Amino acid sequence: MSRVNRATATQSFGVSFTVGLYGTAFGAASIAAGFSVLQTCLLSLLTFSGASQFAVAGIMGAGGTAISAIATASLLGTRNMLYALRMAPLLRVTGIKKVIAAHITIDESTGVAISQEKLGTQAMKQGFWLTGFGVYTFWNSFTLLGALGAQAMGNPSAWGLDAAVPAAFLGLLWPNLTNNFERVLAVSALVMAVVLSPVLSAGLPIISTVVLAVVFGWKARI
Amino acid sequence: MIPEKYLTNPRVLRINTLIPIVLMSAMVGVQTVTENGKWVIDQRLAGIAVAVVALLLKAPYFVVMVSAALTSALLYRL
Predict the structure, then answer these.
(1) Closest chain B residue to A209 measured between Cα atoms?
(2) ipTM of this model?
(3) Is residue A169 part of a domain?
(4) Cβ separation of B70 and A160 shorter than 8 Å?
(5) Same domain membership, residue A106 and residue A185
(6) A34-77 pLDDT per residue, tens
(7) Contacts with A105 (C-beta within 8 Å, 6 or more apart), sequence order
(8) Residues sharing a CB contact under 8 Å with residue A139, sequence separation 6 or more, in sequence order
(9) Do A147 and A207 have their domain in common?
């Protein structure tokens, strides 16, 4: 096996650790939503998709049905399909390796892989695998820590967990709002979901905002 | 599987990037000012307001979360 490029390894580690740290937020959010520590860890181990996991915890916690939670999570995961398109010809994996590669195809592993483009395909592959496994390890370890910590709390509101969860979502959302178009869309979606909450059963107000994404996306100039 | 032609259509790509934005924004709203489908203004709103300030000040992620939690917890206990 060839030596791993040092810059690639460093970048992979940095990204993996930082992203993994967010796992504590998910662990805590999941416990607040009523999942057990075991269920929380299984969610992280088996689905391994940050935004989707937060969605499941958030919607179930707000009293939503499992169906709307899963639908939301799936929609959030669709971008991984696009990453797979980009990575597949590069990785050229088959069989069990393909399944593993698919599981760790996320924003970060794809991102690090692509940023190694100047160093060649070997570095890109290394970036992908290192980051993928790195994030997986850290994310799951921190999920466990977060879940255990939250469970020790008792009443979530007394610790501000009921504000920490939406704050976690807000923190994830904020850097993605890069222009006024997206900011207006975000506020519109927020208002729409809140306004619809007394009218639609739990979970539906959130999913219904996808209509806004379609309308805004359809009309936008590319 | 979904045909590649459909997946790389510019409109689909555009909409696809907007989906996380709407869903996350909706969740922030619902989790801050609703409870079991009803509109409720409570200590959480103050926590989120502090989170927004922290984000505007470009604070690190954990500072944003902890400051929101602290604010909310303090108000809850008062």
Answers:
(1) B22
(2) 0.87
(3) no
(4) yes
(5) no
(6) 777 777 777 777 776 666 776 676 666 656 667 667 776 776 66
(7) A80, A83, A84, A87, A132
(8) A19, A20, A22, A23, A44, A48, A50
(9) no
Q: Is A192 on the interface with B (CB under 8 A)?
A: yes
Closest CA to A104 of A54, A142, A47: A47
**Which residues of chain B neighbour A58 with C-beta distances below 8 Å?**
27, 30-31
Give the C-alpha separation, A87 to A30, whole Å: 31
Contact list in A for residue B22 (CB cut-off 8 A) is 185-186, 189, 209-210, 212-213
User: Could you tell me if residue A172 is inside a domain?
Assistant: no
Which two structure tokens, joined as six digits, stand for A86? 């980009």
Taking a C-beta distance cutoff of 8 angstroms, is the pair A9, A128 a contact? Answer: no
Report the number of distinct structural domains present in chain A.
Answer: 2
In B, minimum Cα distance to A164 occurs at: B69
* Domain of A122, in residue numbers: 6-159
Which of B39, B70, B77 is the closest to A198 by Cβ?
Answer: B39
The answer to pTM > 0.90 is no
